[in-house]
Predict the 3D structure of the following.
Amino acid sequence: MKKFVFFLFLILFPCIVNASSAYIKNFEVLNGKLSIPFQEKNNIYTIYLNEGANTLEYIYELEDENASVEILNQEYIEGIENVATIKVIDEQTKETQMYTFYLEKEKTQSVSLDLTNVKALEPQKEIPYLKEITIGICSILIFFFFRLLIWNFYKKNKHR
C-alpha cells in the first residue's frame, strides 16, 4: 500500500523543473508594424515596414537579462523573401528560442476604375406563356397523382 501511495505521489504531483527563460518578453517595431500583437510563446511574425525603410529597427526586452541574443539578416532587399531571425540563448540551460520575422513593405497603390468599355447586361427575353404552361402542367400532374392515391386507397379499403 505504501508503494502504491508513493507511486501516485510521484505521478500526480508535478516536479518543479527549472524552466527555460530564453524568451523575449516585449518586442516593439520602430519603423513598421507587427501583423499580430507580440506574444513571447509565438515565434513567427510578419512585419510590414514603413515606406522608405530598408532595415528593421526594433526594441526588445528579454525575460532573462543574462540570456544572449544573436540577430541574423535584418535588412529588406526588394524581390526576395526577407526573413529576419532573432535567436535567444539561455546561458544556464543552453536552450534556444528562434523568432522569425518575415519582412514586407507596405505598398500603397492608387486604384482607378475605367468603365468606358463595360457593356451593360441586356435583360433576358421571356418565353411567351411559359408561366401559364408550367402552372397548367404541374396542376394536371398533381391532380393525377392525388387521384391515383385516392383511387388506390379506395380500392384497398373496398376489398376488406
Notes: Confidence is low (pLDDT under 50) at residues 14-18. The chain has two domains: 18-105, 129-160. The chain has two helices and seven strands.
